[in-house]
Amino acid sequence: IILAVFAIFAAIMVGAVFHAHRDQELKRFAASWKGRIHPGGFFEPPGVSFRLEDLPASIDFTQHGDDPTQTHFTVPLTTVRLRLELRPQTSMRQLGKYLGMQDIEIGDPEFDAAFIIQGSNPRLIEEFLAPSVRAAIMRIAHCGAYGHFDLHLVLSGGNLRITKHQHLSSEAQLTKFAQACRDLIRAIRQASQAGIEFVAAPQARPMEE
Fold it and tell me: 119 and 204 in contact (C-beta within 8 Å)?
């Protein structure tokens, strides 16, 4: 019994130290980006709201069951009226593609091999995923500690949401992630200024998980 109590106490202390360090790292990130901390859920860390270029952005964290904590970046992109979703290629999704699941190929072997691409208008999506946009997405995919791609990108309803399936907890990790997301926003805007018009398309049926 004594050993069990000691183990529980040690686990609580380790958790408290980790959470204190995590919160301190988040505060440093918020200060460097002139942002503000906002509360998280009961089992979820606090997040941070800040300005990215001239846009309101946020980084939040979620945790479900035994899954690792996920890191989410969200920003409004009301000028881009396009529905797009990117997920990492997996063996199960490869099977799904053979069974008829949508996977738009854009002619970039590395990018096509890395992601399942789905959306409302294949032609506009191919235009949207210009070389500079693809390069910025690949930089986001490489953020974090994992050696494999864990990026889930959704552009829909005037909002861009990027999820990393890992907990980016240090100031350095969060800064690299935010900078890569900023590069993506800039690349999207540059592509738009170059004359690519991303117009609304008919609503597609829900995408497969």
Answer: yes
Please, which residues have CB within 8 angstroms of residue 185's CB and are 6 or more apart in sequence?
Answer: 52, 53, 55, 75, 77, 160
Cβ(151)–Cβ(163) below 8 Å: yes
Confidence (pTM): 0.79
| Structure tokens given for 193 | 């200024």
C-alpha span between 59 and 44 (Å, rounded):
12
Task: Give the CA radius of gyration of the chain.
Answer: 19
pLDDT in tens, 103-157: 888 899 999 989 999 998 899 999 999 999 999 999 999 998 876 678 999 999 9
CB 74 within 8 A of CB 97: no
Residues contacting 118, CB < 8 A, separation 6+: 84, 85, 86, 87, 102, 103, 104, 204, 207
List phi, psi (to 5°) of 38. Answer: -125, 150
CB 111 within 8 A of CB 132: no
DSSP 8-state class, residue 53: T
CA separation for the pair 110, 141 (Å, rounded):
13
Give backbone dihedrals phi and psi of 196, rounded to 5 degrees, phi first.
-80, 125
Question: Is 97:118 a contact under the CB 8 Å cutoff?
Answer: no
Helices marked H in the chain? 2-32, 91-98, 109-114, 122-128, 131-141, 171-193
What is the spatial distance between Cα 36 and Cα 162, in angstroms, rounded to a whole number?
20
In single-letter form, the type of residue at position 209 comes to E
